[in-house]
Amino acid sequence: MWDAVEEVARYEAWYASPRGAYALACEQRLIASLISAWPRRGHSLLEIGCGTGHFLEMFHNAGFDVTGLDSSLLMLEAAKSRMGFRATLRVGQAEHMPFDDGAFDFAAFVTSLECMDDREAALAEAFRVASKGVVIVFLNSWSLYRLELRFLTRSGLCGRLRKCRARRKKGGIDATAPEPAPVEKKKPADNGRRHALEQAHWYNLAGMLKAVYKASGKPPKCIRSVLFSPSMFWKGEGACRSVTCPLPFGAVVGLRVDLTPVCVTPIVVPSGKAMPVAQ
Prior knowledge:
Blueprint (H helix, E strand, L loop, with lengths): L4 H12 L1 H17 L9 E5 L5 H9 L2 E6 L2 H11 L3 E5 L12 E7 L8 H11 E10 L4 H9 L4 H13 L21 H9 L5 H12 L5 E5 L25 E7 L5 E5 L5 E5 L1
Parallel strand pairs: 1-2, 1-4, 2-3, 4-5
Antiparallel strand pairs: 5-7, 6-7, 8-9
Helix pairs in contact: 1-2, 5-9
């Protein structure tokens, strides 16, 4: 899906756009809430399907020793430009990863399972190479965003409505007037991403829970979602106030599976109140 140079450029353009930047901030907030119980320093994390490294950089900044895996050399080149020597990058398929059992402490999928043909095999491999936990973030078919994308791609209805509005502004609709010649317009930055999302596999929480339990034999310890509104509202500085919620109806859903117990020890802060800290 991402083997062409122009597709990688569109992927980057999406995150540079106002909607993409807003979505990125919300997804990062979601991931931060999921991994808040995990230890960081001296622990390794593999991001499976790391793409151009946006989330790989977040995991590194959170304190993990990060490795990124992707099947696209062009994506890895972009990730190398972003991460430099801060990450180890490997090319490979998620369904057959070139790592030993338990090679990493943690593993993560961040909206990358949608691009993989065999979800069950990729999940099984993630739980094989991770010894302590796995985070899975996926695009949610039970969301307004999914309905919005379906509406925008059906029958050209939106284009016809835009033409009607334009003709009304010019003084009314004349049924005998010839159809104006089409004007070539520059495509929005997220057109390539929208096309890719329509080709992707969308999942819901019920199906994902079954697949995760089959691969790991364990239920998730934490489930949250974000981006509940249509994408027309993804703008401004609201990302810092975005809500992560256990309800599985946001555009992006995340869940965390702990393979070993997370040890939480209370400490005393200056206010005198106990505060839990993961060890």
